[in-house]
Amino acid sequence: MDLQVLRSFQAVADGLTVTEAAAEARITQPALSRALHRLEQEVGAELLRRVGRVLRLTPAGRVFKEYVDATLDSYDRGRRAVAEVVDPEAGVVSLAFLHTLGTWLVPKLVTGFREAHPQVRFELHQHEENGLVQHLLAATADLMITSGDPGHPLITWRRLLVEPLWLAVPTGHRLAGRGRVRLAEVAEEPFILLKPGYGLRSVTEDLCRQAGFGPRVGFEGEEVHTLRGLVAAGLGVSLIPSSPDAAATPGFPIRYLEITDVHGARDIGIAWLSGRGLPPAPRRFIDHALEETAAARPGAA
Questions:
Q1: Which residues, in sequence order, are bridge partners of residue 156?
Q2: 156 vs 24: CA distance, rounded Å
Q3: Which pTM was predicted?
Q4: Which residues does residue 273 pair with via DSSP β-bridges, in sequence order?
Q5: For 85-154, where are the E strands, in sequence order?
Q6: Would you say 95 and 143 are in contact if contact means Cβ atoms under 8 Å apart?
Q7: At what angle do helices 29-43 and 3-13 cross, to 10 degrees?
Q8: Between the CA of residue 186 and those of 70, 213, 216, what are the distances in Å?
Q9: Exposure on the CB side of residue 172, measured as CA atoms within 13 A
Q10: DSSP 8-state code for residue 1
Q11: What is the pLDDT of residues 187-214, one digit of tens each?
């Protein structure tokens, strides 16, 4: 049993064909098939079973894969730690973040960090909230930047800033000429929302409940950019993160209105696995992110 065979087993278990996994390992498909068979003999159980044209994990394979994932993650982190001892200014930061933060916050933080640590490399993953948590739990990311504390017992979360939410309405809307409105004033109108499972969806529903109503779903999307487009088309209203200036994308005839009857905002924070030791580069990035956003946090001087 060697690490490359374990990596190939992991790849096949995660959905690659044996041919694809063999190409990744730069060996022939028959050679990988024999290696996987030897692995099953060493473990003493059938790990993969052919279903149609693909291999699927057996019950024993699912149990074994948990330990393979942990073993490979521990080995990779060990290599990273040694590399950073040899060269403290090098290293990798694997960062997962919300789609909506990829246009402003994440580029700003990464750029500022690399100015001080130009040799550090970043692995970036975009996802919605549930996907971000899975990245951390599966150890495929060191850190995540997301909205709100996920409230998971294995995850440590620190607030970076509070991001305003604005009511987006089309320019021809009855309220478009105003700068400030009560959210309750649009209680009877269709809302353009992200799909269930996205943090902004939960925040919107909570703010609407605070305003005394449940949002009437007009359309659902997977990106804030889509919400803006649907609002601009006159299909409903939406709560959009960031300031009007930052959100005023050319081509979208939208007005952004301040909400006065509820606190229109969401927390943005950085998180990591509580019990997992972080290499130096991710630890330095946490400090950098907290320092760079300190002035935007509640109570800042």
A1: 272
A2: 35
A3: 0.67
A4: 155
A5: 92-98, 121-127, 143-147
A6: yes
A7: 100
A8: 50, 10, 10
A9: 6
A10: -
A11: 999 999 998 878 889 899 999 999 999 9
